[in-house]
Amino acid sequence: xxxxxxxxxxxxxxxxxxxxxxxxxxxxxxxxxxxxxxxxxxxxxxxxxxxxxxxxxxxxxxxxxxxxxxxxxxxxxxxxxxxxxxxxxxxxxxxxxxxxxxxxxxxxxxxxxxxxxxxxxxxxxxxxxxxxxxxxxxxxxxxxxxxxxxxxxxxxxxxxxxxxxxxxxxxxxxxxxxxxxxxxxxxxxxxxxxxxxxxxxxxxxxxxxxxxxxxxxxxxxxxxxxxxxxxxxxxxxxxxxxxxxxxxxxxxxxxxxxxxxxxxxxxxxxxxxxxxxxxxxxxxxxxxxxxxxxxxxxxxxxxxxxxxxxxxxxxxxxxxxxxxxxxxxxxxxxxxxxxxxxxxxxxxxxxxxxxxxxxxxxxxxxxxxxxxxxxxxxxxxxxxxxxxxxxxx
Length: 393
Ligand SMILES: [Zn+2]
Fold this sequence. Notes:
Distance between the termini: 94 Å
Shape: elongated
Largest sheet: 3 strands, antiparallel
Order of helices and strands: HHEHHHHHEHEEEHHEEHHHHHHHHH
Number of helices: 19
Structural class: mainly alpha
Helix content: 40-55%
Radius of gyration: 36 Å
Number of strands: 7
Bound molecules: zinc ion
């Protein structure tokens, strides 16, 4: 059990890792020594969003562990698109276990945007009200680039590989201004939706979310392909609305393949419970223009570069004729077929004068089945048949 005997009361919306940084400061201890008090392996930083030893901290604070989980971590955001049962199971596992899986939760909580972010105006407010500043949950959700209270652009810790850990309080950072991943008007909606999830205890199974998304898409007249919504049109519209580069920057790339993640969110046999993906999908379905129908055509044969190929064909014909065995008789079609150029020559006859000249030369030779002006045609029937099937040669 933990050896901790002191932990300060968390401030409103304070992240759990922030409370522990303050605990060390109040006690005049290094972060490593503070870890020791909690019975943890000493490290030089605190994970900001989730803690493995939640139960120990809850005991030190005289608070239920689930209250810490719901009010001082982004747990409700991370589990927003799970069912009631799944959320309850995760809550119970996490609060009871001495070694909860905080890294997996932290990872889910940062898809779509990195932490650690803070607001300079909030630092001033907090220092005035509480005498110290702290890390806020509402600043550290994916897509959030402005302070919900002051409307100012947030700053982000520049500590290399800061990831989801901190070693100090916001006022000790020399952060850079957070650049929004998406266009300004899109961000307004993304930010509001993300922050609202922190207070939402509404849950429904992922498949019901999926059904409701499909319903909106159908009501809005999104293009269909057979019985289903057109996955190509949806993926194309999604990328067009958010921007390819912007999606990549947010770590939510939509790969150029048939069942990319925006499509699986609408499909019955697959879905996702990643909150950031649902948030983007909701904004897309409500705000983006109805995607255009995408018509796909099978690519036809590439046009022949006649100018380039005419002398090549002519030379190939002459070379072939020169190498024919004595006594051999073939038609023009057979000759061209042997060279693998019959269709190309048939479709571009008027554009291949050198080839036509080489063919005319061949016709006047002994090798031509239909030698011009000399010998009556043999096998007239079969020659006629070939002519019908393959054009005029
Ligand atoms: Zn603020």
